[in-house]
Design a protein that fits this description.
The structure holds two protein chains of two kinds. Helices cover 72% and strands 0% of the residues of chain A. Chain A is an all-alpha fold. The chains are: A mainly alpha, B alpha/beta.
Chain lengths: 469, 364
């Protein structure tokens, strides 16, 4: 099930909230677990089994790690960690990368091995990383193992962030699993946040996505201006789509009493690619940093080793986003940029006026999204060449696309940076009465909710971008 | 009372609305009578009875989603309001249709939507049929409205390159007579409907003129088909994508036809003009009741006439009445619905002529 669907908005979410608020505290976790399994199984019921296996597997691993500690056999704990890594990554690898591997072997050797056609369980990359963070943290003795399997299951399967993040680490919400605060103020702030995310996804991202789909379907035969309009539309689409999903997850989390960490922080106003990755999909970046980059040695073992570590992290970051060579190239592209920034570029950018860094970052990210969005490297190459003017700088079609989409592109660009949000927040804060402030927020949320609902009902275009994650 | 109002927590009202409003909407959907067809959108709607309880196959999930969307209260009115808003905003494209001058609607067909290889393969096949049967073959490709009326479309709106496609197909069609309609139909808004992708009776009549020229037949005023108005309330399939009441109805006209025509569609006797279709949304089905696999028209008035085999798409439906007086028998085949060996059929029915009448991009 996806958030931007009629079933979710009209039935699932209201029923979950009504039930959740009606039952006593002690049964809220099991209730949430059951609803989360329904949410997950809605698209592909059979994959509930994989999720349940994951839950039981890592629940057992956590208990085993603790038991070995109690028994005074700490040296055997690493084998449990290896088992957990092998189990989780093996499952992720099997479902996500088997066909990629076979097709790569076929391409390299000219063989015609049959693809297995394995359907990718939705959100597997997100929940695999969540479960791994749990086992690793128990192994590091940073958290205690969870003894209640229903509570643990609820954490793994929790529907708000299940299919599109953010990646919620167990240690960040372990206290909330048993002890959550609910109050009308918090719930309302969750509702406002959810509505904001929904409107980002449905009103902005979907409209922008149609521009990209239309222009990119012309296979790189468009003029430079048209191609740039298409790429800019995708750049804004993926931001509003992804951050919209995170807003919705955070909002629902608040409605249920959880506090999820922020996942996006206006990444398009970054002054370097390094800063961009601190503001974009923050939970993924911090996961890789904590569980891969730092354990590999980070920047503590000299520059050459740091470069190797960065190379590993960004190759895997690319692959995490999808099983395809374009994702590998996309990851390595960022490795090159980040390495260059660490070696010399960042120092120069800091000395230059802020707009230089911002333009450089926007252009670098714009190019990266083309590689990310195109199905293969050839298509990405053709598209990038068209952006450079391989088919002319502009034509009549450019005028058409510009005239048709100027408003949404400008609106998207303005809303993707913090300026308007800061101004509006300041104006609202200056209002004297709390009731008026609340009323304005509620009215805006109401209008956005109705508009989004009507779009969900009336539109046939509602892509889910994370099916490859 | 004032105290009571002051004690009401606005947050609670907000939460109650957020949970209650969608649930009430769902109740309304569940307990209202289902609509099975949307005239505006020209499509069948999912009703409760259509939702199969197949959870593991995913049919229940898809069905419920479609049901809630399709049966949403005031769906047509909301869609209309959204369309009106976009039209007022000056949108050049809505729902896959371009909005041209005076809200004339055009089908959006960029180059990337055209399967040129398929069109070429089709042309090669037609050429082979012409060569193998030795029957005189005519190909009359119909330019899309967006090609003929380019100046009425939004400036720069991407549209496929008709000329280059036509040229590449002509190179494959060496053994046929080409009837080129480009100049005849260019810049004549009355030759195409404003709310549908088909040509009007006037457009078909102009094509008939070119047809006669290509056949070396005499041209005189008496050969122009006499046109009558079948409906004053026609809105075509493009209007279903842009369902705004601000776009007016237009006339559905047709050539007058002689009495006594014998028309058979897929083994069933029908009338050439289906007046019952005028009571439905899809009024273009007035012509022969829509598309059929094989349709045969026999004109007993034409005693020593010839037999024509037409391979067609729906453009030919409104062209057919123009030529019924010229042939003793016309066999019209729509290969989307009839999978037959065309060369064999042409031989079996002793066809004197073969004609391909279709939009160039549907030739595949």
């Amino acid at each position: 099930m996806v958030f931007s669907s009629a079933v979710f908005l009209l039935v699932f979410l209201p029923v979950v909230l009504l039930t959740y608020y009606a039952v006593p505290d002690c049964v809220r976790n099991p209730i949430l677990l059951v609803f989360s399994l329904i949410f997950y199984g809605w698209g592909e019921p059979v994959y509930i089994l994989i999720m349940l296996f994951s839950t039981v597997f890592d629940y057992s691993n956590g208990l085993m790690l603790e038991w070995l500690d109690r028994k005074g056999k700490p040296d055997r704990r690493k084998w449990i960690l290896v088992l957990s890594l092998a189990g989780n990554l093996g499952m992720l690898g099997f479902f996500k990368y088997t066909d990629f591997l076979i097709s790569s072997v076929n391409a390299l050797t000219g063989q015609g091995l049959d693809l297995l056609g394995i359907a990718l369980p939705i959100g597997i990359s997100f929940y695999t990383f969540q479960t791994l963070s749990y086992t690793i943290d128990v192994y590091r003795r940073e958290i205690k193992a969870q003894h209640n399997i229903l509570d643990f299951g609820m954490y793994i399967c929790m529907f708000p962030q299940l299919i599109a993040g953010p990646i919620v680490k167990y240690r960040d919400i372990q206290k909330q699993i048993r002890n959550r605060r609910l109050g009308s103020e918090r719930i309302c702030s969750g509702i406002f946040r959810f509505t904001l995310g929904l409107s980002k996804k449905v009103l902005l991202a979907n409209s922008l996505g149609m521009i990209w789909d239309e222009i990119s379907s012309q296979n790189g035969t468009t003029s430079a201006l048209t191609s740039i309009i298409g790429a800019a539309a995708y750049m804004l689409q993926i931001y509003f789509d992804f951050s919209g999903y995170s807003d919705m997850a955070i909002g629902i989390g608040r409605m249920l009493g959880f506090d999820f960490l922020e996942n996006f922080n206006y990444p398009y106003e970054s002054k370097s690619v390094t800063e961009f990755w601190r503001r974009w999909h923050i939970s993924l970046g911090s996961w890789f940093r904590e569980y891969l980059y730092i354990p590999l040695g980070g920047n503590r073992k000299g520059l050459p080793r740091q470069m190797v570590n960065l190379f590993i992290v960004w190759t895997l970051t690319g692959l995490w986003h999808g099983a395809g060579w374009n994702f590998v190239v996309w990851g390595l592209y960022f490795f090159v940029l980040l390495a260059a920034e660490k070696l010399f570029l960042l120092k120069r950018l800091k000395k230059a006026p802020a707009f230089v860094g911002r333009i450089y970052t926007l252009l670098a990210v714009l190019v990266s999204w083309v590689v990310f969005a195109c199905d293969d490297i050839g298509a990405a190459g053709r598209y990038l060449l068209s952006m450079l003017g391989a088919n002319g700088l502009a034509d009549a079609a450019s005028v058409y696309y510009l005239r048709e989409n100027l408003i949404i592109l400008v609106a998207g660009a303005l809303l993707s940076v913090s300026f308007i949000r800061r101004q509006l927040s300041r104006e609202i804060r200056l209002l004297p009465k709390e009731g008026v402030r609340f009323g304005i927020k509620a009215a805006v949320a109401g209008v956005l909710y109705i508009a989004s609902l009507l779009m969900v009902i009336g539109s046939t275009y509602n892509p889910f971008l994370y099916f490859r994650f | 009372m004032k105290k009571l109002i002051n004690r009401i927590n606005p947050g609670i009202i907000c939460i109650a609305l957020f949970i209650g409003f969608p649930l009430i909407l769902t109740e309304v959907i569940l307990f209202s009578a289902d609509r099975s067809f949307s005239e505006n959108e020209n499509r069948t709607l999912t009703t409760a009875a259509d939702v199969e309880f197949d959870i593991f196959g995913g049919k229940f999930q898809d069905g419920l989603e479609n049901y809630l969307s399709d049966q949403f209260p005031m769906r047509d009115e909301l869609k209309g309001a959204e369309t009106n808003f976009k039209l007022r905003f000056g949108s050049g494209s809505i729902g896959g249709a371009y909005i041209g001058d005076g809200h004339r609607l055009f089908q959006r067909i960029p180059d990337s939507d055209v399967d040129r290889d398929k069109c070429v393969r089709y042309a090669e096949r037609i050429n082979r049929i012409a060569e193998s049967t030795g029957i005189e073959t005519y190909v009359m490709y119909v330019p899309s409205a967006g090609i003929s009326l380019k100046s009425s479309m939004p400036y720069g709106a991407p549209m496929y390159d008709y000329d280059s496609l036509y040229d590449s197909l002509t190179r494959k069609l060496k053994s046929v007579h080409m009837i080129d309609l480009r100049r005849a139909l260019a810049n004549q808004p009355e030759y195409y409907y404003s709310t549908d992708h088909h040509w009007t009776a006037a457009g078909a009549a102009q094509a008939y003129y070119e047809w006669r020229v290509a056949h070396g037949r005499e041209i005189s005023d008496k050969d122009s088909p006499e046109i009558f108005t079948a409906s004053r309330q026609f809105r075509g399939t493009l209007w279903s994508r842009v369902p705004s009441e601000s776009i007016p109805y237009e006339l559905l006209q047709a050539p007058k036809i002689p009495e006594g025509l014998q028309v058979e569609a897929d083994g069933r006797e029908i009338e050439l003009y289906d007046y019952s279709a005028l009571k439905t949304k899809d009024k273009y089905n007035f012509f022969e009741g829509g598309n059929h696999g094989i349709l045969t028209v026999t004109n007993p008035e034409v005693k020593k006439g010839t037999t024509l085999l037409i391979l067609k798409d729906s453009f030919a439906n409104s062209f057919l009445p123009c030529i019924v007086n010229d042939y003793a028998k016309i066999i019209m085949v729509d290969e989307r619905y009839a999978f037959i060996d065309v060369a064999q059929l042409a031989t079996d029915c002793h066809a004197d002529e073969i004609a391909v009448i279709r939009e160039i991009i549907s030739a595949g």
